[in-house]
Structure prediction request, 240 residues.
Amino acid sequence: MHRHPYFHRFVRSVARFHLALCGGLKVTGQDRIPLTGPVIFAPNHISYLDTSAVAGGMSRMLRFMAKEELWDNKLIGGVVSGVGGFPIRRGEGDSEAIRNALAALADGDALLIYPEGTRGDGVTIGPINRGVAMLAKRSGAAVVPVAITGTNIIMPKRWPGQPKQSGRRHVVRVEYGEPFTYAEIAKSSSDRENRDKFANYLTDRLVELCARNGLPLRSAQSSLPKETSVDLESGSEKPA
Prediction:
């Protein structure tokens, strides 16, 4: 996997500058981020700006999944690769993307995955995809829950049938939570029960972190892991 740390730092600086113009970026919990070793960053997802917010608040280089169509343009594909992206196919199981994700973690990299799989409404946190538990289990990586608030005000999601909304300036807050591992949560002899425990624990941590940063979220009862397909929008998997 090609990585270009200097280019990544440049793009991260641009992201920070953009967020500063949009109202500012406030970051807490950086001392909880493991400085070395494999890490899965698992944020709530409410805006296209979320990746910039998560990456802008830390010094580690992030790997992430992006829609494979971006590589149709060599320049854009090169830029995405340069900042840590690798391709994924939307709407189907992409075993190569999963292998790339596991390989990144095996190399000790940090991987960004949105556990909900797609942007939410900023009111309810969606179901946690079982693919996140699978990656956490197989890699042994530390999982860092991340709360993001304010990005949905700057760049809100447009829902079907709604007129296009213009965003406004607002402070973006990012808090990195305490890391945990799949093994610390999965103590049952049942794989299904362990996945459920992992999903519920991650959901609870995200709800807690978001609430203390000004975004109260309801936890959907359907937050148990489901069969998944790939969602390119988030660079993760989504319920089938």
The helical segments are 5-21, 50-56, 74-82, 95-106, 130-139, 151-154, 182-185, 191-211.
